[in-house]
Design goal:
By secondary structure, the protein is mostly helical. The protein has helices at residues 2-19, 45-61, 65-73, 79-92, 96-104, 109-113, 122-133, 138-154, 158-166, 171-183, 190-198, 204-210, 215-219. The chain is globular. 35% of the residues are buried.
Amino acid sequence: MRYFVVLLLIFALAPIARAETPQSTGSCHCFKDRAYNPDKKFAADKYLLTTSFNSFIAVNFNLSKSKIVMMKMRGGVDPDTLLIALYVAKEGGVDLDEVLTVLEHELSWSEIFASSSLNGNAKAKKVFAAIEATKGDDAVAAEIVTDQLLKNYFGMTDKAIASFRKEGITGRELVLVTILAGHNAHSSSAEDIIAMHGKQQKSWSEIAAVLGFTPKETGHLLKN
Protein backbone atom coordinates (compact mmCIF):
# COMPACT_ATOMS: atom_id res chain seq x y z
CA MET A 1 0.00 0.00 0.00
CA ARG A 2 2.87 2.36 0.84
CA TYR A 3 4.28 1.96 -2.69
CA PHE A 4 0.94 2.85 -4.26
CA VAL A 5 0.74 6.04 -2.19
CA VAL A 6 4.35 7.01 -2.95
CA LEU A 7 3.94 6.21 -6.63
CA LEU A 8 0.75 8.24 -7.01
CA LEU A 9 2.37 11.15 -5.16
CA ILE A 10 5.38 11.10 -7.45
CA PHE A 11 3.17 10.92 -10.55
CA ALA A 12 1.21 13.93 -9.27
CA LEU A 13 4.37 15.96 -8.60
CA ALA A 14 6.39 14.63 -11.54
CA PRO A 15 6.52 17.76 -13.73
CA ILE A 16 7.76 19.85 -10.78
CA ALA A 17 10.19 17.24 -9.51
CA ARG A 18 11.68 16.70 -12.96
CA ALA A 19 12.16 20.42 -13.54
CA GLU A 20 14.10 20.75 -10.28
CA THR A 21 16.47 17.91 -11.10
CA PRO A 22 19.95 19.26 -11.99
CA GLN A 23 21.18 18.14 -15.36
CA SER A 24 24.68 17.21 -16.39
CA THR A 25 26.48 17.04 -19.71
CA GLY A 26 28.85 14.41 -18.40
CA SER A 27 27.27 11.69 -20.54
CA CYS A 28 27.72 13.55 -23.82
CA HIS A 29 27.36 11.21 -26.79
CA CYS A 30 30.15 12.67 -28.91
CA PHE A 31 32.01 10.63 -31.51
CA LYS A 32 35.44 11.38 -32.89
CA ASP A 33 35.16 8.95 -35.80
CA ARG A 34 32.05 9.43 -37.94
CA ALA A 35 33.21 8.24 -41.33
CA TYR A 36 34.51 4.90 -42.57
CA ASN A 37 38.31 4.78 -42.69
CA PRO A 38 39.92 1.67 -44.29
CA ASP A 39 42.96 2.15 -42.05
CA LYS A 40 40.76 2.06 -38.93
CA LYS A 41 37.84 0.11 -40.25
CA PHE A 42 36.08 -0.42 -36.92
CA ALA A 43 36.52 3.15 -35.65
CA ALA A 44 33.19 4.51 -36.91
CA ASP A 45 31.11 1.48 -35.92
CA LYS A 46 29.96 2.85 -32.58
CA TYR A 47 28.75 6.06 -34.19
CA LEU A 48 27.03 4.16 -36.99
CA LEU A 49 25.19 1.84 -34.62
CA THR A 50 24.20 4.72 -32.35
CA THR A 51 22.94 7.10 -35.04
CA SER A 52 20.92 4.39 -36.79
CA PHE A 53 19.43 3.26 -33.47
CA ASN A 54 18.56 6.83 -32.53
CA SER A 55 16.73 7.16 -35.86
CA PHE A 56 14.88 3.93 -35.08
CA ILE A 57 13.85 5.19 -31.64
CA ALA A 58 12.74 8.52 -33.12
CA VAL A 59 10.38 6.98 -35.67
CA ASN A 60 8.95 4.51 -33.17
CA PHE A 61 8.14 7.14 -30.57
CA ASN A 62 7.36 10.05 -32.89
CA LEU A 63 10.18 12.20 -31.56
CA SER A 64 12.85 14.19 -33.35
CA LYS A 65 16.23 12.54 -33.53
CA SER A 66 17.81 15.61 -31.93
CA LYS A 67 15.49 15.26 -28.95
CA ILE A 68 16.48 11.61 -28.54
CA VAL A 69 20.14 12.63 -28.49
CA MET A 70 19.51 15.39 -25.96
CA MET A 71 17.52 13.06 -23.73
CA LYS A 72 20.40 10.59 -23.71
CA MET A 73 22.76 13.39 -22.71
CA ARG A 74 20.68 14.34 -19.67
CA GLY A 75 22.47 13.35 -16.48
CA GLY A 76 21.33 10.22 -14.71
CA VAL A 77 19.35 8.68 -17.56
CA ASP A 78 20.98 5.52 -18.87
CA PRO A 79 20.24 4.89 -22.60
CA ASP A 80 18.79 1.44 -21.85
CA THR A 81 16.59 2.86 -19.09
CA LEU A 82 15.45 5.66 -21.41
CA LEU A 83 14.42 3.19 -24.10
CA ILE A 84 12.38 1.16 -21.61
CA ALA A 85 10.82 4.33 -20.19
CA LEU A 86 9.84 5.50 -23.68
CA TYR A 87 8.11 2.20 -24.34
CA VAL A 88 6.38 2.07 -20.96
CA ALA A 89 5.19 5.67 -21.28
CA LYS A 90 3.82 5.20 -24.79
CA GLU A 91 2.20 1.82 -24.30
CA GLY A 92 1.09 2.49 -20.74
CA GLY A 93 -0.49 5.83 -21.52
CA VAL A 94 1.54 7.89 -19.05
CA ASP A 95 3.89 10.84 -19.37
CA LEU A 96 7.56 10.03 -19.99
CA ASP A 97 8.80 12.58 -17.45
CA GLU A 98 6.56 10.98 -14.85
CA VAL A 99 8.14 7.57 -15.46
CA LEU A 100 11.67 9.02 -15.30
CA THR A 101 10.82 10.90 -12.10
CA VAL A 102 9.58 7.71 -10.49
CA LEU A 103 12.84 6.00 -11.40
CA GLU A 104 14.84 8.92 -10.01
CA HIS A 105 13.09 8.29 -6.70
CA GLU A 106 14.47 4.74 -6.83
CA LEU A 107 11.21 2.93 -7.34
CA SER A 108 11.46 -0.21 -9.46
CA TRP A 109 9.80 -1.21 -12.72
CA SER A 110 7.70 -3.64 -10.69
CA GLU A 111 6.28 -0.77 -8.68
CA ILE A 112 5.62 1.22 -11.84
CA PHE A 113 3.79 -1.71 -13.43
CA ALA A 114 1.72 -2.13 -10.27
CA SER A 115 0.44 1.43 -10.49
CA SER A 116 -3.22 1.95 -11.34
CA SER A 117 -2.10 4.90 -13.47
CA LEU A 118 -0.54 2.54 -16.02
CA ASN A 119 -2.66 1.05 -18.80
CA GLY A 120 -1.61 -1.00 -21.85
CA ASN A 121 -3.04 -3.60 -24.18
CA ALA A 122 -2.39 -7.33 -23.89
CA LYS A 123 0.73 -7.19 -26.07
CA ALA A 124 2.21 -4.32 -24.06
CA LYS A 125 1.42 -6.04 -20.76
CA LYS A 126 3.28 -9.12 -21.98
CA VAL A 127 6.32 -6.95 -22.63
CA PHE A 128 5.89 -5.27 -19.24
CA ALA A 129 5.92 -8.71 -17.60
CA ALA A 130 9.09 -9.65 -19.49
CA ILE A 131 10.75 -6.42 -18.38
CA GLU A 132 9.72 -7.08 -14.79
CA ALA A 133 11.13 -10.60 -15.00
CA THR A 134 14.62 -9.19 -15.68
CA LYS A 135 14.62 -7.97 -12.06
CA GLY A 136 16.15 -4.58 -12.80
CA ASP A 137 18.62 -5.64 -15.50
CA ASP A 138 17.88 -2.76 -17.87
CA ALA A 139 20.40 -3.95 -20.47
CA VAL A 140 18.43 -7.18 -20.89
CA ALA A 141 15.08 -5.38 -20.67
CA ALA A 142 16.15 -2.91 -23.38
CA GLU A 143 16.83 -5.82 -25.73
CA ILE A 144 13.32 -7.11 -25.03
CA VAL A 145 11.89 -3.71 -25.94
CA THR A 146 14.08 -3.52 -29.06
CA ASP A 147 12.80 -6.91 -30.23
CA GLN A 148 9.22 -5.72 -29.78
CA LEU A 149 9.94 -2.55 -31.76
CA LEU A 150 11.50 -4.63 -34.54
CA LYS A 151 8.28 -6.62 -34.71
CA ASN A 152 6.10 -3.53 -34.58
CA TYR A 153 8.00 -1.43 -37.12
CA PHE A 154 9.55 -3.93 -39.53
CA GLY A 155 7.08 -6.77 -39.05
CA MET A 156 9.84 -9.17 -38.01
CA THR A 157 8.76 -12.51 -36.62
CA ASP A 158 9.82 -14.03 -33.31
CA LYS A 159 11.45 -16.85 -35.28
CA ALA A 160 13.54 -14.48 -37.39
CA ILE A 161 14.64 -12.44 -34.38
CA ALA A 162 15.56 -15.60 -32.44
CA SER A 163 17.60 -16.83 -35.41
CA PHE A 164 19.61 -13.60 -35.60
CA ARG A 165 20.04 -13.50 -31.85
CA LYS A 166 21.52 -17.00 -31.89
CA GLU A 167 24.26 -15.60 -34.12
CA GLY A 168 25.15 -13.10 -31.41
CA ILE A 169 23.60 -10.06 -33.08
CA THR A 170 22.67 -7.32 -30.62
CA GLY A 171 19.53 -5.24 -30.84
CA ARG A 172 21.38 -2.22 -32.21
CA GLU A 173 23.12 -4.37 -34.79
CA LEU A 174 19.87 -6.00 -35.83
CA VAL A 175 18.26 -2.59 -36.31
CA LEU A 176 21.18 -1.50 -38.51
CA VAL A 177 21.12 -4.74 -40.49
CA THR A 178 17.39 -4.45 -41.11
CA ILE A 179 17.69 -0.82 -42.20
CA LEU A 180 20.51 -1.63 -44.63
CA ALA A 181 18.71 -4.69 -45.98
CA GLY A 182 15.68 -2.56 -46.76
CA HIS A 183 17.49 0.25 -48.53
CA ASN A 184 20.53 -1.03 -50.43
CA ALA A 185 20.63 -1.24 -54.21
CA HIS A 186 22.54 -4.55 -54.17
CA SER A 187 19.56 -6.61 -52.96
CA SER A 188 21.64 -7.75 -50.01
CA SER A 189 19.48 -9.53 -47.46
CA ALA A 190 19.84 -9.35 -43.70
CA GLU A 191 21.52 -12.76 -43.84
CA ASP A 192 23.98 -11.50 -46.48
CA ILE A 193 24.86 -8.48 -44.37
CA ILE A 194 25.38 -10.53 -41.23
CA ALA A 195 27.63 -12.89 -43.20
CA MET A 196 29.73 -9.91 -44.32
CA HIS A 197 30.26 -9.01 -40.69
CA GLY A 198 30.68 -12.52 -39.27
CA LYS A 199 32.33 -14.57 -42.00
CA GLN A 200 34.10 -11.83 -43.95
CA GLN A 201 35.04 -9.87 -40.82
CA LYS A 202 33.93 -6.55 -42.30
CA SER A 203 33.14 -3.74 -39.90
CA TRP A 204 29.62 -2.35 -39.82
CA SER A 205 30.77 0.96 -41.27
CA GLU A 206 32.65 -0.92 -44.00
CA ILE A 207 29.49 -2.85 -44.86
CA ALA A 208 27.52 0.40 -45.04
CA ALA A 209 30.18 1.80 -47.39
CA VAL A 210 30.01 -1.31 -49.60
CA LEU A 211 26.24 -0.86 -49.81
CA GLY A 212 26.66 2.80 -50.74
CA PHE A 213 26.11 4.67 -47.47
CA THR A 214 28.20 6.73 -45.08
CA PRO A 215 27.46 6.25 -41.37
CA LYS A 216 25.73 9.65 -41.30
CA GLU A 217 23.55 8.78 -44.31
CA THR A 218 22.60 5.44 -42.77
CA GLY A 219 21.29 7.26 -39.73
CA HIS A 220 18.91 9.22 -41.96
CA LEU A 221 17.46 6.28 -43.88
CA LEU A 222 14.57 6.10 -41.45
CA LYS A 223 12.59 9.32 -41.60
CA ASN A 224 10.53 10.56 -38.70
